[in-house]
Automatic annotation (TrEMBL):
It comes from Kouleothrix aurantiaca. One of its GO terms (molecular function) is ABC-type transporter activity. Belongs to the ABC-2 integral membrane protein family. It comes from the Bacteria. This is Transport permease protein. The chain crosses the membrane at residues 21-43, 55-77, 98-123, 135-157, 169-188, 221-245.
Amino acid sequence: MNATITIWSKHMTKFFRNREELGGLLLQPILWVVLFGVGMGALVRDVGGSDYLSFMLPGVLALTALGGAVGGGMALLDERLRGILKEYLAAPIPRLSILLGNAASTVTKALFQAAIILIVGALMGARITANPLGWLALVILLALFTIGFAGIALAFAARSKSIMGYHGLIFLFNLPLLFASNALYPLVNMPGWIKMIALANPTTYLIDALRGLTFGGTATIALPISFAVTALFATLGMALALVSFQRTIR
């Protein structure tokens, strides 16, 4: 546990000291809220009983979590390429603590960024409920979702041989998953074949649950199902990272 906390602390210190990383990870979702959300809101007044900015804000949170997961994998890959990972492996610490430290810092960054996005969204007029249980559910769901994608990113980072190769692989799980979900349009209005793809996408369950719990919308998927799918996704993602990491260090 001490090793996990130490690695987490190291990554968080580096994150807050690196203004380029901090600004880069925040700029894209803020632009989504300010430009796309407000612009589309002028054209689409009502979506599923909610204004469009409130409707799309959960999707921006998912995009933020995806970006944070990619950054977490990039941190592990950078340490691999620079030889720092070998120092971790030589230390008398559990191998699992290396992955847990990376995953914990990724989740912390995602929750920090989510808070910024929510503040910007509220300032732009998004409808955000004052339900404490909804806020708690948002934190839990977003953390689980980030852990799942952090696991996938860490699995790629453990096997990739270059930064370009890593970004080429991880791109397949970034924006395509966002657009193949209910982030920008209602699930009930999708054509049948797109709806099937969206229902196989864990991003859909996170976004749908957040809309119903925190943003005054109506959940189209039962909340227990959304929680179960998101938790299962987190478990499978970290299991994939552990298997990939163990094969790499043999």
